[in-house]
């Protein structure tokens, strides 16, 4: 886009997206196996979702 400044390079956005996705998927699998509390599920979901959103929103 004209006049927009890259805040985050493209090389960093893809690993950030994959890290968020891995936290959501692997974290939920691990928490399910360990019978974690609801607050742990929420914290994992918030962190994973925040990484996903940050990788998409920050250009």
Fold and architecture overview:
- By secondary structure, this protein is an all-alpha fold.
- It contains 2 helices and no strands.
- It has helices at 10-34, 38-57.
- It is elongated, with a radius of gyration of 14 Å.
- The mean pLDDT is 85.
Key terms:
59 residues; mainly alpha
| Outline type | elongated
Measure the end-to-end span.
10 Å
**Count of discrete alpha- or pi-helical segments spanning 4 or more residues:** 2
Low-confidence stretches: none
Number of strands: 0
How do the helices and strands line up, and which of them pair or pack?
Elements: H1 10-34, H2 38-57
Helix pairs in contact: 1-2
In short:
The protein has two helices and no strands. It has 59 residues and is an all-alpha fold.
